[in-house]
Amino acid sequence: MRIGELARRTGVSERSLRYYEAQGLLQSERTSGGHRHYAESAVDRVIRIQTLYAAGLNSKKIAKLLPCMRDADGRPNEIATPTLVNELTTERDRIDRMITDLLRSREVLDEVIDTASDRATTDPASLARRR
C-alpha cells in the first residue's frame, strides 16, 4: 500500500510515517517511480509504534523493543536481551508511577469540584449571579 493509504488506515500522518522510517521503526520498498510501498503488516506495526509512543517510550527504545514483540500471527520474535528486559521493566515502573500520580491528581480535583459545587449551591451571592 502507498503511504497515503497507510496514513488513512492508521490515523497517523504521512510525515510521522516518514519519520518512523527514518528512525528505523518502519520499512518500505520503493516503486520504480520512487514511491514508498508498505506491506499489509505495516498497519499493525504503526499501531504498535503509536501505542509505545503513547506509553512514553522514545524512538530509540521502541527500535530496540519492536524486534522482541510477537508478530501479528502470534509467533514470537527472536531478540530479547536481559538488558532490554531491565530497561522495559524500568519504563513500566515509570508508567505505573505516572498512573499513581495522575490518580492522586484526579482525587484532588474531585475534592475541589465537590467543594466548589457545594459552595455554589449554598452561597447566596453565587445563587444571585445565576438568576
Characterise this structure.
This protein is mostly helical and 131 residues long. It has helices spanning 3-10, 14-22, 42-54, 59-65, 82-122, 124-130; strands at residues 29-30, 36-37. Strands 1-2 form a two-stranded antiparallel ribbon. The longest helix has 41 residues, at 82-122. 12% of the residues are buried. The mean pLDDT is 84.
Number of helices: 6
Any low-confidence stretches, pLDDT <50, length ≥5?
none
Rough shape? elongated
The computed structural class is mainly alpha
SSE blueprint:
Elements: H1 3-10, H2 14-22, E1 29-30, E2 36-37, H3 42-54, H4 59-65, H5 82-122, H6 124-130
Antiparallel strand pairs: 1-2
In short:
This protein has helices at residues 3-10, 14-22, 42-54, 59-65, 82-122, 124-130, and strands spanning 29-30, 36-37.
Main features:
mainly alpha; elongated; 131 residues
